[in-house]
Amino acid sequence: MSELFKPGDLVGLEPSGQTCRIEEFLGGGGQGEVYSARYGERAWALKWYYPQSATQGQRKALEKLIDIKIKSYNFPSPEFLWPEFMASRLGFPGYGYLMPLRERRFHGIVDILNQQVDPSFRSLVNAGIKLADSFLLLHSKGLCYCDISFGNVFFDPETGDIMICDNDNVGVDGENNSGVLGTPRFMAPEVVTGKSKPNIQTDLYSLAVLLFYMFFLHHPLEGRFEADIQCMDLAAMQKLYGKDAKFIFDPDDESNRPVPGLHDNALTFWPLYPQFLRDIFIRAFTSGIKDAKDGRVRESEWRAALSKLRDLIYYCPQCGAENFVHEGPNPLDTVPESVCWGCGCELTVPFRLCVGRQTVVLNQDTKIFTHHVDPRKRNDFSTPVAELAQHPVRPDVWGLKNLSTAKWTTLGPNGKQLEVPPGRSVSIAYNTRIHFGTSEGVIV
Amino acid sequence: MGVEGKIQALNNAIREAVPHMQSVARDNPNANVLVRAVRFSDGASWHVAHPTPVHDFKWPDLTAGGLTDLGQALSLVAEEMQVPPMTDRALPPVLCLVSDGLPTDDFSAGLNTLLKLDWGRKAVRIAIAIGEDAMLDDAVSVFTRFIAAPGIKPLHANNPEALVGYIRWVSTAVLKSASSPASQLDQDGGAIMTPEGAAVPAPPPFVGNNTDVTVTDVW
Fold first, then answer.
1. A261 vs chain B: nearest CA distance in angstroms?
2. What is the model's pTM?
3. Are residues A34 and A170 in the same domain?
4. Structural domain contains residue B1
5. Could you tell me which residues come within 8 angstroms of residue A105 by beta carbon, excluding any fewer than 6 positions away?
6. Which of A314, A378, A399 sits opposite B161 (nearest CB)?
7. Which of A150, B8, B76, B119 has the largest CB neighbor count within 10 A?
8. Interval B143-163: pLDDT, tens
């Protein structure tokens, strides 16, 4: 691949006429090349289009994206590596744009499958929530991404922070002129079969595939049908991912189940997760395939399900592996003992706080947020309202410490009613009821 | 509503809200939740005229229109808030305004027509703000007057779960749980009721039994 620029080259920025200095060639793709560059105090990335990709239409689309950022109050969020300046150079064909540079802590999601990184479930769930959050934000502006896939999304395996790259294909929903159809395996069946162009609904499908890959390390449609294909040519792919798309865990049709020996990740990971999570994936790939318009799982639903999943993580006391509480239909019911998926030892489920439909396992490091106790402020994780605290004299006694500004009232298991002012803790005991001011919870 | 991307944003906001409404309705089987919709641009008309059970509700996409005749929309809704067609006894209706908040007609007249009616006043009124214009003072003032309840702010389209937090079927659920069994409480004078076999593993916390600190203590 020819490198258009060399380190030290200056490239002009519009409209100011200031310049950025090329530092390093980072990579090239079908559309152009990407360099790290220095402009002002910050490190940036410069994408430069090859002449055949540097169309008038693409330029207009980029200018529009830059304009959206300038005019928006809260968009895009820092997760998007969004185009910020057009770039051009006298005597040089084509144009480029400047966007924030991805930090080195971010890895491709495909690295999970390649076993290059081994994130915790908590990090994966965090990444899933942030993906859902970010694409919800994009869609709530009436924009669609058109190509959600491995290559465009990066995450930090330690924290679950994410970055969304290649935003130059983003456009107003239904007005997609970029010609981008998406990435094989991630494209919605109706795009694969040529019935639709990418739009918000097809983004939802691609997001579901990406999430399935993250949680099950496998593709949701690759089961028996894939095993029976001798040559994975275009026709075979169109059938598997388009015309005959069939979820491997479709509860009403077992014809495309994973094949032991070939699809072991799917078989191993599927039973680890609570039923509600399996159910939402079932819906994403059954009604989500049958009814592209109204059957797909929405981002806010993913966000709610994954937040719930995060609250159900607990740790094996033997090996430290993360396990999930498998609640029954009534969260107040006792959860049967289970076996650690990491080491096989018997597990007893720890105390949980149930607030309405929310259940939070009380691990030592658990924090309770406004999200959990105020139904009007779902997804507010900005400040904790409670955390676990050890009794100063009796280290075997743990309590829930009031970090909020409101006074709680509690009803203990012996029927004694007490007040818990801010800064104080109430001992954790089965059947203690706590009124947080906005809702009531009970420890089970 | 003709501005670029805004109508798509509106369609998306409603599609995001529907599953959460369905979910909270499932938790409140005593409430029979019916949904219908008015569209307003140049004038106002019923977009989903038939009151549809929330579980069957599917949103027909709107296409970009011209003006924002919110006042006419509120008058149209007001016709349905009268008794009849409303009955004397019902759960409060929920009116959700999805808009950029900048009406082009006599919004005050429409709002007054609505708020003159008992059910118009008793309705839970929520607003979802679309687009950057919805942040402008004029727009915020329209939302605030429509909502007319201190403490309730217009919601942003990227937080549809919050919408159902305002809907009063939820308070029905809270009532239910608050009045539900004290039977789980300890009957024999203070022993800790721990379910059979629930020896709580480390690292999660546990409660000691030989107690100079009572488990119900606040410290």
1. 35
2. 0.88
3. no
4. no
5. A156, A158, A161
6. A378
7. B8
8. 999 999 887 888 888 888 777
